[in-house]
Design goal:
315 residues, alpha/beta, eight-stranded mixed beta sheet, 10 helices, globular, EC 3.4.11.5, AB_hydrolase_1, aminopeptidase, Pro_iminopeptidase
Length: 315
């Protein structure tokens, strides 16, 4: 772990559609470029990533995707339209940011939703990617979204009943993410508040393996809880704005790009199968399976150590 140095540069980039994305650069301006694609969707960048990169060697870029973190307008405001917040918009934003910073190629790092976005970006812009590191691998397929919003009910029936019952009865057998997104965009603030609460209780339980106590988590903040629920349900309710097997069908575009996939065998929200199948189709990627890890990266756990080792390998 390295000291969490302050950024040497930061700014707001106008990417069109009335959107401005926040970015920051830390480490060495002439160092090897690396960029973190954060998860969520909608979680915002985490400065803790600076501790994983030697500031004397790397030029580390963090950015907030549309609607979250310090990017504007914020999805926390229910009046903010989500019309121009899609996967393709985020891919285009990342490419505009790379060009704005004058970077030829960068290493991409990110897990969960960040991994889906990384893979989609790299498929479209393979010549701009030097290496890829992905912990907690996902690909945004409908089968994955169905699993996390419904299939996991077999492991957490108590939490799932509460989650399903949070939407109107006529929506309970359909797309639960889309049903929640309608509630989260209701003109009634009480409806929005309850939907964000119910969605977040389920979300947290699937990440932790059953513990959905908000205490000490980001979900304890009502504004952050609402923004996350609204953004995630917006993407999941629209199948991540990707064709069902888009990433799997286009992995040949990554040929020649070295990758390290890191996945916990106990990841309830993102079963190992996705990482396994991607590794088989991407010959330049290595899969690291952690028997004692789940979905969450925590300081000092095996996932954290594996990420640190991967970054060092691509140094």
């Amino acid at each position: 772990m390295y000291p969490q140095v302050e950024p040497y540069a930061r700014g707001m980039l106008d990417v069109g559609d009335g959107q401005q994305i926040h970015w920051e650069a830390s480490g060495t301006p002439t160092g090897k470029p690396a960029c973190v694609f954060h998860g969520g969707p909608g979680s915002g960048s985490n400065p803790r990533w600076r501790e994983d990169f030697d500031p004397t060697h790397w030029n580390l870029i963090l950015w907030d995707q549309r609607g979250c973190g310090r990017s504007t307008p914020s999805a926390t405001d229910p009046l903010t339209s989500m019309e121009h917040n899609t996967t393709q918009h985020l891919i285009n934003d990342a490419e505009k940011l790379r060009e704005h910073l004058g970077i030829d190629k960068w290493m991409l790092v990110g897990g969960s939703w960040g991994s889906t976005l990384i893979l989609a970006y790299a498929i479209q812009h393979p010549t701009r990617v030097s290496e890829i590191i992905i912990p907690a691998v996902t690909a945004g397929r409908p089968v994955e979204l169905e699993w996390i919003t419904r299939g996991l009910g077999m492991f957490f029936p108590d939490h799932f009943d509460a989650f399903r019952d949070g939407v109107p009865e006529h929506d309970r057998d359909g797309n639960l993410a889309a049903a929640y997104n309608r509630l989260l965009n209701s003109p009634d603030p009480e409806v929005r508040y309850k939907a964000a609460w119910d969605w977040s209780k389920w979300d947290l339980s699937t990440i932790t393996g059953g513990d959905n106590d908000f205490t000490g988590t980001r979900y304890d903040n009502p504004e952050e809880r609402y923004r996350l629920a609204r953004t995630v349900s917006h993407y999941w309710g629209n199948d991540c704005f990707l064709e069902p097997t888009y990433i799997f069908d286009n992995l040949n575009a990554l040929r020649g790009i070295p990758g390290i996939l890191i996945h916990g065998r106990n990841d309830f929200g993102g079963p190992l199968y996705t990482a396994w199948e991607i590794a088989k189709r991407w010959p330049d990627a290595e899969l690291v399976v952690l028997n004692d890890a789940g979905h969450v990266i925590m300081e000092g756990n095996s996932m954290d150590k594996a990420i640190t080792a991967a970054i060092h390998r691509f140094r």
